[in-house]
Amino acid sequence: MTPNMIRDINHTLAQDILRILPAPETPIPGPRDLQIEPMHGDGSLRKFYRVATGKTNYVAIVAPPDTLSRTNENDSYYYIGNHLRKKGIPVPEIYAYSQEKGIIILEDLGDLHLQSVIDFQDTYNESKAWYVNILEKLAKMNIEGARGFDSSWCFDTPVYDSEFIYQRELLYFKNEFLSRYLCLTIEESDLENEFKHLAELVSEIPNNFLMHRDFQSRNIMIKEAKFYFIDFQGARFGPPTYDLASFLIDPYVGVSQQLQAELLEGYFDEIKFQIKASREEFINWYWLTALCRNLQILAAFVFLSQVKKKPFFAQFIKPALRQLCHTLDHVDSHKFKRLRFIVTEQARSFLQS
After folding, report:
1. Do 69 and 209 fall into the same domain?
2. Which of 95, 184, 270, 320, CA to CA, is 20 to 30 A from 279?
3. Mean pLDDT to the nearest integer, 118-125
């Protein structure tokens, strides 16, 4: 792409942004007075830009919709973001949305992820303090966020059910990690019974909670010592343990087993009056959903690094596999014998390489 083409694209984007900027910013002389800087967006297909007007910085999410006839990803971000903010959940403020252009203008939260903050914490207690405070708000999102949540806002699926689990997490793991990455020849039928059983077990957990589905340290921004949740457009109804598991087994950070255990116990105490489950039952739910999430993230890291050619994600495959071995130790060994055998055999050689 030539410099002239880039300038033309930026000029057109600036014109589109100017049309929807909040009213106090509209007396800007023209689109060339906006400074537009591309931002990195991890695994997303959407494009992110920092927009400087000379008065205020914004972030523009740009994702031209493929259709306006049904709810799309932009719509979900807009509706769910506004819903969460009204519920007191820390998410960026959304200032404007053009459905036609697929542009959302929102609060600029900077570039600091929780991952970076945790990496620089000096003590166990400092890290734990961040997690405890964030989990308090996660509990609020899971419980309060479900109240008044309209499933028509969901661009993907409105509920985390057995079909979604089987197709989008468990088979995803088989296809991407076992087949593509490890080059194993495994028929779907080889793991079908165990995968379907796992999907059914998880779908039997109460699913009237609002789950983020990608709740991890790179989707939590830190600005002026406050945290904000981002990338929530995939929210849907689901179990009360999925986001917790996603957060605690996050390979980007590598939460210690001791801290995972303490935070799991603390989270149950936080929400025990809102759920109808004993501590033992809740912990069982946790490990079942942790297993689904663990399989999903391994698949995602392979897909992003090998198919989408984003090598950043490859470094987290081994940590995620180590966590999977630990996760399998906490579920009924008689229910997932084949999965356990395959993972254990492959992990032994792969983690030593």
Report:
1. no
2. 320
3. 88
